[in-house]
């Protein structure tokens, strides 16, 4: 239908003091003036054209006014290689390889907000250099099930940890004049049925568990963009969900940025107009690999919107609000002439990747100090396992990368042990020998048609004659592993690795297991293995980071950002049977998933059920030891609107420098509502030399003491007795002190 739009515009043309330059082009003018001036100059069709994609990862600007296009890019761990204009396939550029930074689960495991700032700044520099205005990341969805294929992109099970770690990342990215687009808002906590799952969750759980990291991203991180998630909440798709977008995000939190749909997450024009969606991408694609070509004019916020504007079904109220937000994004990014120029694959970025990876690795177990390796005399080291050689930066979905390089664990270990040990390798098992994703190939040929028995026999034979055996296995980025758009089928390691590890343990007591994964895994052999390292997807510098920890060049200081359950029975999403949900029988393809466990997610559940996990939230060992003194408070009573200081002396009682993550949990001993036994409300990573003591203090305020009361729709700090628990993990409380809260 040819839409003839009569444009009656009372054009109020703003001009700056220097009348030659229109205000919207005057970078010295206040942003809001520039927004209003640009808006006043735009035609209806120009406004609508800004609301939706024009290609896979870009949206239109206003050529007539010199307002640039907006270019977005995945992902949270590095800058995605270019795809063709309207395809998911590679564009075949030769200048678009990147630094692959560690996965965000690894960043969370550092418990170091300073590294989060370094991470954001570094990845933002690479996005800027590649000419991108919006980075489609970070992701902060809460870890509700260890089977979720995308947990590796997120920051764990605790809203406080995720909140503290996401804010600096955003500020770092945006310091480059590149928008962070925090995702996936909200309640996208597993991948199976990701487009059709309708989540039911009570308000208290929503506000206490699933929203805090997004709220921190907006109100403290100042995020310029938020990505809606594919799933539904209260039967409305989250990409145009009135409660999440209008009431909470833009209303309660005052978000002034843009809401971007996930790719293919838009399903209805009227909802998209009214419910807070600002930019529509990827419609009629599956968000990964397939889609309708050149559908952009048919997008829900394209021609259908113009038709509604023309026939009066819609007016320009919502339209102007959307365009104001997009213009504000432009003036913050590609129309901000003061923004830096960025940089790509610099030594600084590589160093950042190595440091973050090294600080994120978690030493789970280290019986009789097997680690660090004793290399005072020549050693024979056997390295076993597919993940010692398999590239992990390719695959896993939209976060897949074309890394400038990826140093494998085996090569990292070989380099580090050069001249100090002989290093021999055996595959041990064959898992996934593919090496391609969306047209990016690893170049590796991992094909091996030997039988499992042959592979194990070779590995055991090598192990028998070694001083140390390092098994490097875990998951990978293939489907039903750590991979977008699919979930794992169980907690167990795939490819019969448990058998390999068990036989290696029988062959040599000096066995070190390095688990590379973005998720908790079952470790039935944990009692037989003296040393276990949790090494996440570590990116470009994986090999160096693992070698740094194994050789002791780096003293491990990572702490688990999620519980490692002993079984799925310890996970309420499974023990209560609500995952992945129940398919409706009404002919729709909706799957209802009720978060019946409420706020009791992760350690909150394990504490309430008095269950012993394999490894607890916040756990991580060091090559030194730390002693905690008695925790004290500056007052035994505090008013509900006052603050309290908790202080604890921590001493390095070992023989080498190390970092400790001092964790503060708060326990409301008597409450009118059920509350978790304790909740993380503070942490501090401190570096101590042998014998050094630090006085670590935490300020406890009403937010740390409150729970969300849905009836009052607000946070309530109830008078009564509380305890501050200070420790090295959620299950290693070293000292506690009680205090009274009074009105
Ligand atoms: C994908 C993902 C999202 C990504 C987007 C663009 O399907 O869900 O995280 O940023 O589409 O690739």
Average pLDDT, rounded to a whole number, is 96
The amount of beta strand, in percent, is 15-25%
Oligomer: single chain
Strand order of the largest sheet: 1-2-3-4-6-9
Globular, elongated, flat, extended or rod-shaped: what is the shape? globular
Q: How many DSSP H or I helices?
A: 19
Provide the helix percentage: 25-40%
Distance between the termini: 65 Å
Number of strands: 30
- Class based on secondary structure composition and strand pairing: alpha/beta
Low-confidence stretches: 1-13
Largest beta-sheet characterization:
6 strands, mixed
Short description:
This protein is of the alpha/beta class. 25% of the residues lie in helices and 20% in strands.
Helix/strand layout:
Blueprint: H1 31-41, H2 44-49, E1 58-59, E2 70-73, H3 104-110, H4 113-129, E3 134-135, H5 159-174, E4 179-185, E5 197-200, H6 203-210, H7 212-219, E6 225-228, E7 232-233, E8 236-237, H8 242-252, E9 258-260, H9 269-274, H10 303-311, H11 316-332, H12 347-360, E10 362-366, E11 379-384, H13 409-417, E12 421-426, E13 436-437, E14 440-441, H14 452-464, E15 468-474, H15 497-507, E16 511-516, E17 531-535, H16 542-551, H17 572-575, E18 582-583, E19 591-594, H18 603-608, E20 626-628, E21 632-633, E22 637-639, E23 644-652, E24 658-668, E25 679-688, E26 693-700, H19 702-705, E27 707-709, E28 714-716, E29 720-729, E30 732-742
Parallel strand pairs: 2-3, 3-4, 4-6, 5-7, 5-19, 6-9, 11-12, 11-15, 15-16, 16-17, 22-30
Antiparallel strand pairs: 1-2, 7-8, 10-17, 13-14, 18-19, 20-23, 21-23, 23-26, 24-25, 24-29, 27-28, 29-30
Helix pairs in contact: 1-11, 3-12, 4-5, 4-12, 5-7, 12-16, 13-16, 14-15
The chain binds alpha-D-glucopyranose (GLC).
Alpha-D-glucopyranose (GLC) binds at residues 74, 136, 183, 262-263, 287-288, 398.
